[in-house]
Amino acid sequence: MADHAKQQGGSRLPDRHPTADFFICDIFDALPKDDLASMEHPLFSLSTRADLRVLSYSHNGVEVTVTPSVRGRATLFDKDILIYCISQLMAAINAGQPISRTLHLRAHDLLVATNRETSGDGYRRLVDAFERLAGTRITTNIATAEIEETTGFGLIETWQIQRRTRGGRMVSVRVTLAEWLFRAVLSKSVLTLSRDYFRLRKPLERRIYELARKHCGYQPEWRISLPVLAHKSGSASPLRVFRRMVRDMIAADHLPDYELAEEPGDMIHVRPRRVALAPGEGPHLSPEALDEARRLIQGADAYALEAEWRSWWLATGRPRLRSSDAAFLGWVRKKAGAGGRQ
Questions:
Q1: What 3-state DSSP class applies to 68?
Q2: pTM (2 decimals)?
Q3: Neighbour-count burial of 19, counting CB atoms closer than 10 A to its CB (0-12 exposed, 13-18 middle, 19+ buried)
Q4: CATH 1.10.10 fits 203-272, yes or no
Q5: In 163-196, which positions are buried (b, 16+ CB within 10 angstroms) versus exposed (e)?
Q6: What is the C-alpha radius of gyration for the chain, rounded to an integer number of angstroms?
Q7: Where on the phi/psi map is residue 28: left (φ > 0), alpha (ψ -120 to 50), or beta?
């Protein structure tokens, strides 16, 4: 069945947790992170039903075979779990804390951070997602941290519910990530996503946002042919159906950070959105924070740094900040050469 027939609804999901405590923290710790390899290659199914097809993908020397379990191939919505795990690991690295491949997570925090329902159905769907992630097997020669190897692995190695409520609802869970994904985190082969990524209702919207974030970033523009976009997205739809879905996406204009346009010759033009703050809107900085920014980057225009940071804060989903000064100075330190990608 074509992807178009499986994706219902044309609007974004509601922001179910606008004041979630998970996001009230340092800006670099709060924002979701995604690994470059799975942003580049279509490891996840776009279907919202059990996808039992074996995916064979080849592009620019990279070969990928994704084999589902009896529960189906892991979906792009299942990937939310990996994004959450990567975000937690990167937050720990930025805070100077030791990390390992095994994470202990509160299920409720995961659901809230990824804009999922915290009802009983939400917890049941989370269990199904863990099953698909653990059961999906990948054979590939993808290079992470500049190491290329042909190998087979799962998207996660193991998972275990460690505590339940009296009613049987999952409370805490332990997850061990695949070695390749952990290696991507250690090498900081990750990019920041907008929080609004989790509000995208259609899997194809999420997948094209990933590709735009990976290839366009903050550059002025990126162009890609429709057939190549269809191939890289992992869509199983005929090209004419895929073209219609992309046109619908262009008309709806729901992608965070980016806007799409169709050009002659079956080309898609991607541009970052121009964002601006109204006078007095957004986080405010103290004079002491601006003085510290001048010290951190000798000769810099502190007000220009403030304007750049405020624009970046807006473009990345307006995350809630526990301390505007601390978030700004963390951004300045990173800009001054602490490493990593924004």
A1: coil
A2: 0.75
A3: exposed
A4: yes
A5: eeeeeebbeebebbbbebbbbbbeebbbbbbbbb
A6: 20
A7: alpha
Tell me the backbone φ, ψ of residue 45, rounded to 5 degrees: -75, 145
DSSP 186-233: HTT-EEE--GGGGG--SHHHHHHHHHHHHHTTTSS-EEEEHHHHHHHH
Q: Which two tokens stand for residue 68?
A: 């589902």
CB 104 within 8 A of CB 98: no
Q: Of 206, 210, 197, 194, nearest to 317 (Cα)? A: 194
Alpha carbon of residue 132 to chain centroid = 18
Residue 46, CB-side half-sphere exposure with 13 Å CA sphere? 30
The answer to whether residues 135 and 69 touch, using CB atoms and an 8 Å cutoff, is yes
Lowest mean pLDDT among 21-30, 116-125, 266-275, 309-318: 21-30
CB burial string 22-47: b at 16+ within 10 A, e below: bbebbbbbbbbbbbbbbbbbbbbbbb
End-to-end Cα, the chain, rounded Å: 38
Domain positions in the chain = 3-199, 203-272, 287-338
Running DSSP on this structure, what letter comes out for residue 336?
I
Q: What is the pLDDT of residues 54-105, one digit of tens each?
A: 999 888 888 889 999 999 999 999 999 999 999 888 887 777 778 889 888 8
Burial class, 317, CB count within 10 angstroms (exposed 0-12 / middle 13-18 / buried 19+): buried
